[in-house]
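Practice problem 4.
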């Protein structure tokens, strides 16, 4: 709900997705009614309210992913590929997303993750890079 350049943070992630040449559906997973309101206002789909246990400040993002994917599986909605676009990176562009998705397809990867040096305790982060540049959850 933080405002960045006159818009809530969620706006920038949704807009990047809308401008991506690869992303066809935009869903938002949140436990916040206000974020749901803005997501719908900006034309994203919000099919459920995320449980509080996956929405805490220290909740790993991957748990929210699995919750959403279980929702789609239970509803028999076929998801071919999944792109996570957290609202905490408002400078990310559709071109950034398309570059990563392009790498995903060209390299036939099972996952592509954008990373940067950590500015907080690295054990909070989702992945760890070892000397061979292999990432581990």
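Answer key:
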């Amino acid at each position: 709900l933080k405002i960045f350049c006159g818009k809530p943070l969620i706006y920038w992630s949704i807009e990047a997705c809308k401008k991506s040449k690869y992303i066809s559906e935009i869903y938002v997973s949140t436990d916040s009614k206000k974020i749901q309101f803005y997501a719908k206002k900006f034309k994203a789909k919000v099919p459920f309210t995320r449980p509080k246990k996956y929405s805490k400040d220290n909740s790993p993002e991957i748990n929210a992913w699995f919750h959403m994917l279980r929702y789609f599986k239970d509803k028999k909605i076929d998801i071919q590929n999944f792109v996570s676009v957290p609202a905490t990176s408002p400078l990310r562009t559709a071109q950034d997303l398309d570059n990563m998705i392009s790498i995903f397809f060209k390299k036939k990867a099972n996952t592509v993750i954008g990373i940067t040096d950590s500015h907080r305790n690295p054990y909070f982060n989702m992945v760890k890079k070892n000397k061979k540049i292999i990432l581990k959850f």
